[in-house]
Amino acid sequence: MNETYRPVHAAAGEEQISVSLKEVSFGYDPEHPILQDITLAVPQGQWVSIVGPNGCGKSTLVKLLNALLPKSGGEIVICGHKLEEETISDIRQCIGMVFQNPDNQFIGATVEEDILFGLEGLCLPYAEMESRLHVYAAKLGIDHLMSKHPGELSGGQKQRVAIASILAMEPGIVIFDEASSMLDEGSRNELLGILQEMRTEGKYTILMITHDADEILAADRVVALAGGQIIADVTPEELFRDEVLLAECHLQMPYPWRLARELHRRGIDAGVAADEKELIDRIWPFNYNK
Amino acid sequence: MAIQLQQVSYIYADRSLWKQTALHDIDLAVPQGSMVGIAGATGSGKSTLLQLFNGILKPTGGSVRVLDVTIKAGEKSPKLLPLRRRVGLVFQFPEQQMFEETVEKDLCFGPLNFGLSLEEAKERAHRALLDMGLDPALLARNPFKLSGGQMRKAAIASVLAMDPDILVLDEPTATLDPLSRAELITLLERLCREQGRTVIIVTHRMDELLPYADSWVVLEKGRKAFQGSAQELARDPFILEQCGLTVPQSLRYWRAVADRFGLDNEAPCLTAESLAERIASLCAQPEEDGRGERDGYE
Amino acid sequence: MVMNEKLLLGRSIETGSWVHRLDARAKLTGMIVYVAIILLSRSWLALALLAVFSLTVMASTRIPLKYFIKAAKPLRYLMLFIFIVQMLSVKEGAVWFSAGSFSLHEEGLRLGAFSVIRMVFLITFTALLTFTTTPGKLNQGLEGILSPFRRLGLSPDRITLMISIALRFIPTILDEAQIIMKAQASRGADLQELSLKEKAKMLVSLLVPVISSAFRRAQDLVYSMEARGFRMDARRSRYHRPKWGGADTAFIAMFVVLGIAIVIL
What we know:
B: 11 helices, C: mainly alpha, ATPase-coupled transmembrane transporter activity (chain B)
């Protein structure tokens, strides 16, 4: 198969660890923990997809990282800060979160106010706010919408505003909690483009909860959760090759992968094509040779 | 025809400052017992169109004929309650419209409103739950304690319990995980194929509905840009791009294969399985002996 | 979506006029003085003066008059009601019309007309405030006006945060209520075709989903505010710093002069 393998666990000693969890657990009732014994380290700059069936605790897990929910046990270290009562506000500065529902995370009455909400909380001086406001609005392509009310924006535009608001606070870690699941196809592709740009910049560690095959494929690494525990820590390619794991995570292969599998079952080893043209180039010889 | 729209327009009465999508000159025919997909970019008027189907919205121009009821613009409409029973309309995130403390009570709400006895309503609730692939043991449960996928199915069952001839759903699979999505589409297809109901689904994930839909309607900015069979859509899928939509992968791959091998006149293969099967048979064709076709590769 | 129009009050309309550029605190203070003036206006002459003044200010905002009328329209029945009550209850002055025990007096008609005219002024002029000021600036102005009360244990930040979130989410929740109404109507619960007892049941079918959805939204909002580092009563910097200028002082002075003129008259 023609996947490009990106080294994930390379040079562990030299890397800076952005997110580190040791035996972390969470639950309201000790008898029925929602998460248990989660140990995970994410180096700076890595893009991790977190997958698993609905209700497996993915969303809970990321909310523990910045203490939106209180962990019941274990140790969490974010960018060198150990998570404790006193460090919560430092840690929240390190982590930006984009949630699922575009409407419910729009805090301001206008786009400009929404971006400013976080900046004012950081007590930034005027000039700094002014410059970040323009830099990040331009970066997300929403500078023409600054005075708009959320009711006048599409879901995709609202998610862009949320991302601009969060990136303007310049966090090192950005978490996307099913941020594309309420968007239409076009907006989903745009969001993926934004993430790929963020990766290119290299400044961000990205954690992304998702069910979307294209989003999973774009990541460096996949952490799979089920029943409150990590059941796999693999590359996207390894995930999509493992049909048992896919079923456990309630996921489906991307279309080109499914097609490659079905062709393989029928004796045609064309591999995973990048697009339909490549597929034709690859299956043509089979036809021709006959 | 289950639904027939003639020159239908819908213009919102108030000149509000907010974005709203009106509909213009829509002609549409949905045959009884068919499965129809409706696609369109955000703000193309999909949701407005659906609400015309059971008289929640009345056309401001043209006429809407659903089953044996005709709603004409400018005329006093007939009593709509009987129509609403026969056209089940499932809004987005229907689980958010549940309100009773048990699944059974919620499922009985519709049938009771339409004048059925409690006995009959319970019977309907039971059947609807089975049709949505859920365990009848859930009837006694609190709907808010179910998992996301179960809740969605139970909410659809609460409309199905009215035993409608036509089932209309707005983004029924939104935010579900891929496995639950595939499951739900299969269940909806069964309602159409096995029970003869007309099923109309608005979706922005055309991929998952493509193998099952008999025909498609594509809207663009409140106008109908396309209506035709899946085969017609497969012949020229790039109309979707003109409407601000992405061409689904299954269509793109089929198009490429069909172009290369000249398969335009046959039914499109829109699943990975069927396309692989077709490709395999193409690769095998030149050989006289059909049995030994695979040996070359294994 | 229909609901949004009724919430025209609370939407700013940008024309860039001098009133738009004023400090929100000046506009709020002016408004308070204006309300006092309305209460003090007790003669036709005073009302005429008030009308000339109000129309001049409204015209200078360059916002079409129809928007002001639209803002007052939802309250037309209330105004009619007040007019009728005043008209019927005041039994002074010359009798204009009588039939049996029923009579209409000049003073009643005069007071009724007065009340309605004052109410129209009140609403259209308050609309002017929201039309010319974005909700954010208005809120900040309110915070400024309320800041002297901080010593009394009042938290202006909390009050303005509450108001801004309410302004932000009320339209969303009303839209949602409408969808839920349509959804339940699709399940056979149509208000128009139901008996009273069934209407009560229908209300439950609306309220439960609307309330639970409002809670869900509130929870989401709290998460996203906290994730962006928000803490109640923490120090914040301000992007829009209101600047008090000569025009603001002049604006208030205008209202004070009008008030004095009306009292003298």
